[in-house]
Amino acid sequence: MESDFRKELIRSNDAIQEPDSKLRKVLTAKGHNTKTAYVLHWIPEQLEDLYTVLISGSYLVDVEIAKYDNSKPPIVERSELKSYMHGLSKSNQVRLAVAKDLACTIT
Known about the structure:
Strand order of the largest sheet: 1-2-3-4
Number of strands: 4
Strand content: 25-35%
Distance between the termini: 25 Å
Mean pLDDT: 95
Order of helices and strands: HHEEEEHH
Low-confidence stretches: none
Helix content: 40-55%
Number of domains: 1
Number of helices: 4
């Protein structure tokens, strides 16, 4: 499971780094460093995409990006790890631990 999470998280970081990544543009515009950003959760809704992103291994950002209405500004909310970890399932605890490890190993 840990190995699968590691691969998935590395792919999420690679996708964020793409020049045309909407998520990267939103995070960067709000002052977040995307070098060590990892998508912990992605929910593709009908009208928007919802992301929970670990930034630099130290805090989370929840992002809502409209799919079709470019006039609607993205919603970005920062939260701390402590509140996120409360009641987290075992598999999501492992995913978070792997993401934090990846964030710490990239220089």
